[in-house]
Design brief:
A hairpin with a 2-residue loop joins strand 5 (153-162) and strand 6 (165-175). The strands form three sheets. The protein has a six-stranded antiparallel sheet. Strands 1-2 form a two-stranded antiparallel ribbon. It is an alpha+beta fold and 268 residues long. The protein folds into two domains: 12-97, Orthogonal Bundle (Arc Repressor Mutant, subunit A), CATH 1.10.10; 102-260, Chorismate lyase-like (Chorismate lyase), CATH 3.40.1410.10. The chain has helices at 23-27, 34-47, 60-66, 71-83, 114-119, 139-144, 176-179, 184-189, 192-198, 217-223, and strands at residues 87-90, 94-97, 102-105, 125-135, 153-162, 165-175, 205-214, 230-239, 245-253, 257-260. Helix 2 (34-47) packs across helix 4 and helix 3 crosses helix 4. Helices cover 28% and strands 29% of the residues.
């Protein structure tokens, strides 16, 4: 799957105006501690596009010579950038500009799919179909979907990629009568919200919770992360306009996926 674009997200290190015109002015600002001046220099290189995502930043030796300081001071400066998620260290290779996190707003008054929200910001969404098969539901799934005993469900497993990068694993539990109406083409191309709309059952309400878990061997391989990596998990039930449960399941996201939200005091 070819990446056709990149999501238009503002990286955290571009949110602050550091009020300098060039690196030379910054490096001669003796009012600041050296480690702060080094951090500002690296931030500037990233903000101006001289260093891009995945680029290797100058070595500790190069920075210590540039700023006429010790490698310990440089290491302190870089460590803070690592902590902020701006730079990542790779053993034996050096330090690199980190990938920019993807985010999705938490909207409480509108129902939008994860895919639609990111696509609106310019991301290209694709799917890798892992499996789609019928099975007996668990008691919990029967309860969530208000289904009678002795009925089957389809379990859908897919990896969602965002602009070519594996971002989440989705697991959907679908009643048999709905699963039989879904085509392989739908499962390869469309979000579950769009599939349901095409089947004449648009999603009107989403009920769920957000939790955390660690990646096991299978999920770690699917998301290309290390086993034991912390993941964000969304559990949910998708409902129709009359609040009839249609689909339940969970989505597991890489740690560089963020949920943005705003809480505002209501006028009284």
């Amino acid at each position: 799957m070819a990446a056709k674009g990149h999501p238009k997200h503002t990286p955290p290190y571009c949110l602050v105006d550091y009020s300098f015109k060039d690196a030379k002015k910054m490096t001669t600002d003796t009012a600041l501690p050296l480690y702060v001046r080094i951090q500002r220099y690296i931030r500037s290189e990233i903000a101006t596009g001289r260093l891009n995502e995945g680029d290797r930043i100058p070595t500790e030796m190069e920075l210590s010579e540039r700023f006429e300081t010790t490698r310990a001071t440089v290491a302190r400066a870089i460590q803070q950038l690592v902590y902020e998620g701006i730079v990542v260290r790779r053993a034996g290779s050096g330090s690199f500009v980190a990938s920019r996190p993807l985010s999705s707003p938490l909207q409480l008054t509108q129902v939008h799919s994860f895919e639609d929200q990111l696509a609106a910001e310019g991301a290209v969404i694709d799917y890798e179909l892992i499996g789609f098969s019928a099975r007996q539901p668990s008691d919990e799934e029967l309860d969530q979907l208000c289904m009678p005993q002795r009925t089957q469900v389809y379990e859908l497993r897919r990896v969602r990629t965002v602009s070519g990068k594996r971002m989440s694993v989705e697991i959907r539990i679908i009643p048999e009568e709905l699963g039989r109406r879904m085509t392989v083409d739908m499962l390869h191309r469309q979000s579950i919200h769009r599939i349901m709309a095409e089947l004449g059952l648009p999603i009107h309400r989403v009920e769920g919770m957000i939790r955390a878990r660690v990646a096991d061997d299978t999920v770690a391989d699917q998301l290309e992360v290390k086993k034991g990596t912390a993941l964000l998990v969304r559990d949910y039930t998708l409902l129709s306009h009359d609040r009839r449960p249609l689909i339940c399941g969970e989505s597991m996201y890489r740690p560089d996926f963020h949920i943005n939200y705003i809480v505002q005091q209501a006028n009284i």
